Amino acid sequence: MRIEWWILIIVNAMATGILIFTAVKQIRLAAVAFLFKQVITFLFGLLVVEFDMIEYPVRLFSAINRTSFTYEYYAFPAVCALFNVWYPSDRSVLVQLGYYVGYTSVLTAGEVLIEKYTALIDYIHWEWYISWITIFLSFFLVRIFCVWFFHSGENSSSSRNFL
User: Fold this and answer.
1) Smallest Cα–Cα separation from 99: which of 139, 42, 151?
2) What is the C-alpha separation between 133 and 107, in angstroms, rounded?
3) Structural domain of residue 80, as residue ranges?
4) What residues contact residue 111 under an 8 Å CB cut-off, 6+ apart?
5) Are 73 and 15 contacting, i.e. CB atoms less than 8 angstroms apart?
6) Which parts pass through the membrane (predicted)?
7) Which helix (H) or strand (E) element contains residue 148?
8) Of 59, 63, 92, 98, which sits most exposed with the smallest number of CB within 10 A?
9) Which of 12, 13, 10, 33 has its CA nearest to residue 23?
């Protein structure tokens, strides 16, 4: 079996573990973050591959979809659920910003390594910093949605929760 398939198996197992871990803490928040992240990655992921910016040569369900099911629809949303469940909303803005930068940087670094050393992803008209920006923005959008979703009936005076 090629190394790419082992990576896909390991990433799927890790994403499953992350979902179980986050669901134990706050299942509703984890589910909302997971599902809303899937909406974002579904739309944006399809655009990126259809405009030949990124290619996924080795992927699950290759006859159905040109995007990476494992990353776009499972692993990335699972990490986003973890991000939101453990978000430090009671900490300073600097800590919250560091939380965003940390998650975004780790995911981008992993993607760059996978792009460089495997056939799971190929950048065509794409760069690592575009990934960093889009990952950061997608985390931010999901965070805004989750705060709105769970505080829509309350008068939330703290805007720090959005960061």
Assistant:
1) 139
2) 11
3) 3-162
4) 121, 128, 131
5) no
6) 5-24, 30-49, 70-87, 93-114, 126-150
7) helix 128-151
8) 63
9) 33
| Cβ neighbours of 14 (radius 10 Å) | 13
Spatial contact of 108 and 7, defined as CB atoms under 8 Å apart: no
Residue 64 three-state SS: coil
Cα–Cα distances (Å) from 29 to 26, 36, 120, 156, in that order, read 6, 11, 30, 17
Phi–psi pair at 4, nearest 5 degrees: -60, -40
Phi-psi region of 140 (alpha: psi -120 to 50; beta: other; left: phi over 0): alpha
pLDDT means per 10 residues in the chain (163 residues)? 91 95 92 96 94 94 90 96 96 97 98 96 97 98 96 57 55
Q: Is 54 helix (H, G, I), strand (E, B) or coil?
A: strand
Q: What's the structural domain count of the chain?
A: 1
The Cα–Cα gap between 149 and 41 comes to 19
Report the predicted TM-score, pTM, of the whole model to 2 decimal places.
0.89
Q: How many residues does the chain have?
A: 163
